[in-house]
Design goal:
heterotrimer, A mainly alpha, B mainly alpha, C alpha/beta, A: mainly alpha, 11 helices, B: mainly alpha
């Protein structure tokens, strides 16, 4: 709520995030002028995908960015020890202590893009599709959280890297396009090993009723696995941290 | 003559100092370079999938590859973003020492950025060379034959594009004397430049209205003009040169004015 | 014959402060209606300082000391009045002037945080255009005097506060300034370090004849370094003269410390003055300054006094009382 008080500040950043979202849609519209499809996805389908990505991005930006920044700063400055003495589960404390509400508008734009695209394509998804869609989004968000957390945990092994928090945002392009864009080795990398190309693609496919079961399953499974891995990695890092005598 | 020798001695010493300081950030720089190159590679994948399904593509993948490669090159060589942190120095009253020493804040910004830019160019060049080699090996590189004039003009344009970027960043920094959100303007600057400087897709692929708008304003000198010089051998016209120099003169004049006024305000209110 | 180096005439600095109501409504309201308040940080101050003097500025927080120093450095433009330092008008910011003075702000660093101090020194050498031989000589001398040989190669952010302040001083003195403005240079330092810095400043003043203005909260700084003090309160100069004279002008009380050969009741002491401490065999009395000797004589006559000491009230207490009085009469 503190963010709300600086009203001008809030509106300004809301404007900036709206412009960036619009800009992203505009960029893909330029690509779609050259060819009407991207990896077999029509323009409307692409905008739905972008809408899904925008939802995800607004969510992760609101809840993850600042917290991950704070987390890495704690590690770099050595103040993590203070948090380690608190009784609440350390991971939870590290990553949910502040939120930013500026991204509400992006969230709304994402929703609008999805609804408009569905309307234009005259698709009415079934209730079960919509429910599965939301679950898929949650799985996607958790997956992004897990890999972001693991990337941030690398800070335990580095003395200083101020832009470490930009690594996961740097992967956004992969999340904005259908998974069919990638072929061969790239496909193996981005859909199987590090399935970031699934996070917006699979939920969108669900709504568009062209989802493949194996990829839906893989999204949920890899999201679960990555959370486990993140947790293990964190405790491994903590052990090393305390043993070095911070 | 002695004064010139003394001044250049001074500048070289300060740049050396700033260069050493910039070296502290070499790991971050490498990460930034990688974070710039990665989306570029992804973009190539996207375009490849777009073009392969298109019946009669209006452009080839090699041409697109060269375009985006040039975007990274021009960006690495010319972009400035000190307006992301300098405004805070003004707002937090950290420029005090520059007001009492024979070394002004503007000098500090210029020399610091030049040193940082030199280091960045040094670091990005091997990456660009390697990337270019790989792309050429994959048959994705299609650079047309260029004369010496073209290369010289290109280098000139890069230098002027850097000065233009620098002026825009400095202009935003100056607003910090009056506005709290000067740093937010940095975001808007990047947005506007991305939209109107011809960095999104090759000029020929832009919708007509955007082509007209891009041509009509000086941001085109940041990317569109130097890139088209290489890809289409299109030398800037006399009109282009006058627009460029006119814009630079206007910006520099405005910055000077804002600086005078800003310092006056700062020194009256106490930072 | 000492030349005046700093001349200040009728210096005034008024700040316009915008008042804003707290909260969301306040922010909205302030968009079209702003309330002002004028604060007189420096209110008609005049003084002259001669070459080689070390002058102390004393005053409470917000009294106007730092503001005055900032105007003398050219950092701040005055509302009215004139200043001349080394013959220059500070806010013209002529480089010839800037190369001859230094400002040390105890709460702000000029050293670059992520680099070793030596790098800032080298940068200053370039900025102040100090010839190599002279630079090396001065640097060595300062480094030895302050004993920081091992510290200057370490990143500033890894140094202790004391080492940092020492390096900060070196950075300020590399160009052998004729005038030195020190604003709270010993703040946050331990007692030993404070003494080290004081000795150093004193030594520097002796050797180079530099003119120094010092502001400090620590009375020891002022007592040991400054023969002359200027007291500033609410922007006005309320005293300008020798430190020793403050005592005779403002001190109202003296302290009598007594040791008795036989036990003495508290009651028997109250007729002589205010009893500050008493435990039967010793006591401390607060008596009026004028009567101190007389009261001492009477005590020696009427009570079994074994030992008697007459002391001045501590300087801090005197000054605190001066400001306290001003507040009351304001």
């Amino acid at each position: 709520m503190r963010m709300m008080e600086y009203r001008g500040d809030f509106l300004f950043w809301a404007l900036v995030s709206i412009l960036w979202t619009g800009f992203n849609f505009f960029f893909f519209s330029l690509i779609l002028r050259v060819s009407d499809t991207v990896a077999g996805w029509t323009a409307d389908e692409m905008y739905l995908l972008l809408g899904t990505f925008t939802l995800l991005d607004a969510f992760t930006w609101t809840f993850f960015y600042q917290n991950m920044q704070r987390y890495t700063r704690h590690v770099f400055t050595g103040s993590l020890t203070m948090l380690l003495t608190k009784p609440i589960s350390t991971i939870f404390l590290l990553t949910t202590s502040s939120n930013s509400f500026n991204n509400i508008f992006r969230f709304l734009i994402g929703c609008a893009a999805i609804v408009i695209s569905l309307h234009r394509m005259e698709i009415t998804p079934s209730i079960s599709s919509v429910v599965l869609y939301f679950f898929a989004l949650m799985a996607a968000a958790l997956f992004i959280y897990a890999i972001w957390f693991m990337a941030s945990t690398l800070s335990f092994w580095i003395e200083k890297l101020d832009n470490i928090n930009e690594i996961i945002p740097g992967l956004r392009r992969v999340m904005q396009v259908p998974r069919g864009v990638f072929a061969g080795a790239a496909s193996v990398l981005f859909t199987v090993l590090l399935p970031i190309s699934l996070v917006a693609s699979v939920p969108s496919e669900i709504l568009l009723q062209k989802a493949e079961t194996k990829w839906v399953v893989w999204l949920f499974v890899s999201s679960f696995l990555s959370l486990l891995l993140a947790r293990k990695f964190f405790y491994f890092a903590i052990k090393r941290y305390s043993s070095v005598g911070n | 003559m002695n004064r010139i020798a003394q001044q250049s001695n001074f500048y070289s010493k300060v740049i050396r100092f700033k260069f050493i300081k910039a070296l502290q950030w070499r790991t971050e720089m490498i990460l930034w370079i990688l974070l710039d190159i990665f989306p570029f590679i992804i973009l190539l994948f996207i375009w490849q999938s777009v073009l392969s399904l298109s019946a009669s593509p209006s452009i080839s993948l090699p041409e697109l590859t060269v375009f985006y490669y040039l975007v990274i090159l021009v960006q690495g060589f010319t972009v400035t973003h000190f307006e992301e942190y300098r405004p805070e120095e003004i707002r937090m009253g950290k420029i005090d020492f520059f007001l009492i020493k024979p070394y002004s804040f503007i000098q500090e910004i210029i020399l610091n950025d030049i040193a940082g830019k030199l280091l960045y160019i040094l670091m990005i060049s091997p990456f660009l060379a390697l990337l270019g080699y790989i792309l050429w090996h994959l048959g994705l590189f299609a650079i047309p034959a260029l004369t010496t004039i073209h290369v010289l003009v290109f280098v000139c344009l890069l230098l002027l594009a850097y000065i233009l970027q620098f002026c825009l960043s400095l202009l935003i920094t100056m607003t910090a004397f009056w506005f709290e959100e000067a740093q937010g303007l940095s975001n808007l600057k990047i947005l506007v430049i991305s939209l109107f400087s011809g960095t999104l897709i090759p000029f020929a692929l832009l919708p007509e209205w955007l082509q007209k708008v891009t041509n009509a304003q000086p941001l085109k000198f940041l990317f569109a003009v130097p890139i088209r010089l290489i890809q289409e051998q299109a030398l800037p016209t006399a009109q282009d040169w006058s627009m460029l120099f006119g814009t630079l003169a206007f910006l520099i004049g405005t910055i000077f004015l804002l600086w005078q006024r800003g310092i006056q305000k700062y020194s009256s209110a106490g930072g | 014959m000492s030349q005046p180096v700093i001349t200040v005439s009728n210096l005034k600095k008024h700040f316009t402060v915008y008042k804003k109501q707290p909260g969301l409504l306040g922010s909205i309201r302030s968009l079209w209606h702003r309330e002002y308040e004028t604060v007189a940080a420096v209110d008609d101050i005049s003084f002259t300082i001669n070459q080689g003097e070390i002058v102390g500025f004393i005053g409470q927080n917000g009294a106007g000391k730092t503001t005055t120093l900032k105007m003398l450095s050219g950092l701040l433009y005055p509302t009215s009045g004139s200043v001349s330092v080394l013959g220059y008008n500070p806010w013209n910011r002529k480089s010839a002037f800037q190369k001859q003075f230094s400002l040390v702000l105890g709460q702000k660093n000029q050293l670059w945080w992520d680099l070793p101090a030596i790098e800032t020194f080298l940068l200053n050498q370039a900025i102040y255009d100090i010839p190599e031989a002279q630079f090396r000589k001065t640097l060595n001398k300062l480094v030895n005097l302050l004993d920081v040989k091992d510290s200057i190669q370490i990143q500033v952010r890894k140094l202790s506060l004391g080492q940092r302040m020492k390096c900060e001083l070196i950075a300020a003195l590399l160009h052998n300034p004729k005038v030195l403005f020190l604003d709270e240079p010993t703040i946050g330092l331990d007692v030993v370090m404070q003494k080290t810095l004081r000795d150093f400043i004193s030594e520097y003043n002796r050797e180079f004849g530099a003119t120094v203005i010092l502001t400090s909260h620590y009375m020891d700084d002022v007592k040991e370094l400054c023969k002359r003090v200027i007291m500033i309160d609410h922007g006005k100069k309320i005293y300008d003269g020798l430190l020793s004279n403050i005592i005779s002008k403002y001190a109202r009380n003296k302290t009598l410390s007594l040791v008795f050969s036989e036990s003495v009741t508290k009651k028997s002491l109250t007729e002589f003055g205010t009893v500050k401490n008493w435990n039967g065999s010793s006591a401390t009395l607060l008596v009026s300054r004028k009567e101190a000797t007389k009261i001492a004589a009477r005590l020696l006559e009427s009570l079994p006094v074994q030992d008697l000491n007459i002391e001045e009230a501590p300087l801090e207490a005197i000054i605190r009382e001066v400001f306290g009085n001003k507040a009351k009469s304001a």
